[in-house]
Specification:
The structure is a homotetramer. Chain A has about 350 residues and is of the alpha/beta class. Chain A folds into 2 domains: about 160 residues, Rossmann fold (3-Layer(aba) Sandwich); about 180 residues, Dihydrodipicolinate Reductase, domain 2 (2-Layer Sandwich), CATH 3.30.360.10. The first copy, chain A, has 12 helices and 14 strands. In chain A, strands 3-2-1-4-5-6 form a 6-stranded parallel beta sheet, with helices on both faces. The longest helix of chain A is centred in the middle third of the chain and has 17 residues. Chain A is globular, with a radius of gyration of 19 Å. At the A-D interface, loops of A face loops of D.
Chain lengths: ~350, ~350, ~350, ~350
């Protein structure tokens, strides 16, 4: 399968997620970017002129000189990655799917739709089975939509999945400390976050609570069945550039010793990690023994930003265990997540 | 009672807590500082020379020129406030109590002792009844020890007390985001906290879990009875100067509507607030309606740093309610807490 | 003169400078706010609804309930303070002056006009003599425009003025490190400034270079004569909330010993400070002896934010001396500057 | 010359500079680390146990398992890199040199000695000629000492060298904004730098002023001749992790157009860059056209932290030109500087 180089179009290419997608696709072994699309104002300009590049690594030269196109079909590509803003993503992504393009989206618009997979390759690859139904429902021939979860949901669910498989999970209580890059650019005003924490991110707690249940749930051939897990989230913005840190308490269906919990993380080996997807590190879950880890700045880049780092497992006086989990919000939690989804689709012959 | 000016000695006067005590005692209506004591190295120097003043307000001129004494009795004062480091506080405070001085301490050493009050004036003034027993146990005539809680416990317990009175509390799960000033000076290295969160503070989670149960518990004439509340804490250091922010989930004994919960906070009026203690604002609990408050930088100075600000009450899918609480860690959580304790003792004729 | 309470209108009342003006006018002994004006969108709303209050002190209750008016004459007031944005300030301020209102403006639009005073009360009160000419030039009867300098110019010029009087100044080379609040709200994106310095602020170096020469120059009855001082500025944005820090090198016309330089600052007593203007601290220049001061966080609030703090005087191997100066950019450098200008006008019977 | 793998010993291996040296020597094409040395307390432990690793990249596994030795000869290596603290570096480095080891040191102790090269490979390779004299002076056979400059001097001098060659330089006035990592670990307390700038770094201004003159000066066969350049420095600590930013004003001996200045930087090609030293990027000076660059976070990693980035060239109203320069203080300014020095020594057959 890896022989073929797939042609990729990036929607919302000038935004923060689009920029990160371009950086991550530089020298990608399976994918080559053949189209960059953004808003009308950007269309017709070179990417270098259209985008205010935010990453600390330079814009790849192949991207700098590409002419940005309008975010509308047709584009010369095999599939599209969408970093579009929620305000416009819903309709544009449907247009591409209707026009025959597989769409892998980071936007929230279609995530909770009954016939759209909300996908983390290592967690719920089986949800891809819904694609046939999606096409039928919507009268699409070849195109379809797959989404990746919200940035604060992904790390949490990656850490929960091995525990769910090993012990069952009934309750999850999480408090997040989220990086400023999660709000895009210009995003969080420096006057709001210097010497401060903002204990509110619009819509975020709802996303964590609903997406987690869908991701850890099943697909019965007809529809998604939410996992029967009570999820409670409190979301905060902290003065960190990249990396969402989360304090989690969890209740299992079965008793488990601490060693067994750590073993569940360390030995977790879903089918997907055996497919050799280029963006999935092996292991993709790292358990750190140090008493003060994970930390955003020190651990966010583990596994080129695609690993999920867990630490501080200890018994919880209320639920069963508490622990800390960290993931890079713009790589594992956004652009890298969409690319990994595309890799899984490629590996399964769905592109 | 307010007619008398009490003479105060400050132990550990050169440290961070001692400095804050001095700043707060500047122009205090009941207390006048007559002795500053610190380590042997500081003894004999003027306070201006002995202390590396950290606060952004200037050192009061009366303090600057005082000669620092050794932290040992006798000192010319009616009682002592102790900002001593835990490493030495235990023994020195006992020496002062044995020598006849009431000791009000911010150190952790005696907090959990069976005959020492762990005191928040608005929460558990009745715990002072143990002082007679303490004197008898220890063979002290006039002196005694009273302690204030850990900085991350105080805000939490102030927010819980009205709920406990109104509805009963069975479970409390809290994740803290604590300011760097809580670690003293030089304390947290800038290289550890810039663009980072440290999800670990040594001994902190244990303090929150044990102190909360003592503070919300009773005194049966013989001994303290811990409240039957399960408490689970996760403690983090964030890049904030002052102000500990805490995300709390709580389970009540009885059902309560949200309006009733907010009313419990707003109408809470313990006997103590009627005593007119100079350091206790009325109300001392502020509930904010804004969806993104409290925030450390914007709310920590409410009630000259002695108010506790609560916000974001909403139902918790696992326990009953979740909310956010903030308090100033070096004022309400340390120096101001000890001074408020002293004020209560003065008002009750115990100094 | 102080008997009368002047009625003040605030233009641009919802912006950052307007907010600071309102906070500083709370309980002002001479001025009472009788009108708040802002853009069309805000007009008709209560100030509490119209403004996104950014300061850490609460909005004064008298302001919260005032109804915001359109920024156009007439307003019920004796004079207006303008915190308007440069984009609209030019025209609106002229409308008010033409309608008979004295206008004291923080905007840059009229600062360098040949008949408009650019005023720091302690530095160039004599420039007010131009007002008659301004009225004549523009056909205004009663109204006129007075401006305060750019936030990074004010601290510099306050520190230079005593040196100019004592020794003459021929060259000034300054590198600024400016706070984020200088860019307004939302202003600087947190992603741009976290773990960073931005060595560029649009138009800032030009303002420092031209305004300094006007402020330290004279008025010959006909026109302003720029001081014959070469000024070179490099301006940087640093990760500080409030307080512009500036490293200065200066060349004098005459030789001077270091003690004489410090004495020039400490003994500087312009006529204006004897007028008892409520916003001008006495002394308004503070020279600190410590080797590592002034610092933004520790010194910006000196003299309720209206003092200018100087330190680290030492000989410069290229020009004569180098030193460091700090001033609060939104108080001394903006809102407080305009209010002080108004106080001087009141004291001189010009309102 | 590149055929041989040199064996390197690292002195002060557990400190911040030593850690960075180890990270940079991982997979070095010419050098392989064969000895790690530190203080008595660390000696005998594995490096993983002895060092509190501060870098965000993991400790190389070959280093983690090495046993730390005492910082005294003999060590099994061809030369030593010294990241020792100034407090002990002077004596220990002399012991190694006396014992026959070439010593390349980041410490300040020997930098200004009359017979010790203060070396930047691209700037003053000819200074190595002093080594024979050094050996003779000190009675050393094979060993010798070479030093790299202070972290804030290096970037400045790299930017000045091409200008000196092209136009001559007579005056340099620089204001630095230096990163916290320059102070080592724990170094700068977070309470000192959050929301602040500290306008003082002990001894730093003197180092910049004296080292610059030595580096840009000559060696006449007998002794170093300081460049006849007046240098004036003001040094500040800002809230940035890595990367020293410097605002420079410079006066030339000859007139030059701006284009010529930029061309001098871009075309600068010292002999050394042709030697193919592995740590020297080509070009090693980058001139950025953007009006707001260089910035620490966005440019410090250019040329794997060994490039020097310059920007914002414009005429200075007092000296001739002003510009901004940035270099990574712990790579180009410390550990990488010493390694580059060692590479030059290797290329010249001096190891």
């Amino acid at each position: 399968m890896n022989k073929k180089m797939y042609k990729v179009g990036v929607l919302g290419a000038t935004g923060m997620v689009g920029q990160r997608m371009i950086a991550l696709l530089d020298n990608h072994p399976w994918f080559t970017v053949t189209a960059l699309a953004a808003s009308e104002q950007s269309a017709g300009k070179s990417y270098a002129d259209a985008a205010t590049w935010q990453l600390d690594t330079p814009v790849p030269s192949w991207a700098a000189s590409m002419i940005v196109q309008k975010s509308a079909p047709p584009l010369d590509c095999d599939f599209v990655l969408s970093g579009l803003d929620n305000a416009v993503a819903g309709e544009i992504e449907e247009q591409f799917a209707a026009a025959g393009y597989p769409v892998i989206s980071n936007a929230k618009n279609h995530r909770m739709a009954a016939d759209v997979p909300l996908l983390i390759p290592e967690v719920n690859a089986a949800h891809l089975d819904v694609i046939d139904r999606q096409r039928k429902n919507r009268g699409w021939n070849k195109g379809f939509i797959v989404t990746n979860p919200n940035c604060s949901t992904i790390g949490l669910v990656c850490a929960l999945k091995p525990l769910q498989e090993a012990f069952g999970i009934t309750k999850v209580l999480v408090t997040t400390m989220q990086a400023i890059s999660g709000a895009g650019y210009p995003g969080v005003a420096s006057l709001d976050i210097l010497d401060n924490v903002v204990p509110f991110i619009k819509g975020e707690e709802e996303k964590v609570e609903t997406e987690t249940r869908k991701l850890l749930g099943g697909f019965d051939g007809e529809r998604f069945i939410d996992a029967e897990i009570a999820v409670s989230a409190q979301c905060n913005r902290v003065h960190v550039r990249d990396g969402h840190l989360e304090c989690v308490s969890v209740e299992f269906s079965e008793q488990a010793e601490p060693e067994a919990v750590i073993r569940a993380w360390r030995s977790f080996a879903p089918e997907t990690t055996k497919l050799g997807l280029p963006s999935i590190p092996d292991p993709f879950i790292i358990y750190k023994e140090e008493e003060n880890r994970p930390q955003p700045r020190r651990d966010r880049d583990a596994g080129w930003g695609m690993a999920v780092t867990v630490g501080r497992l200890r018994r919880c006086p209320i639920l069963h265990y508490k622990f800390v989990v960290l993931s890079h919000n713009t790589i594992r939690g956004a652009a890298g997540a969409a690319i990994a989804d595309a890799e899984l689709l490629a590996a399964k012959g769905l592109l």
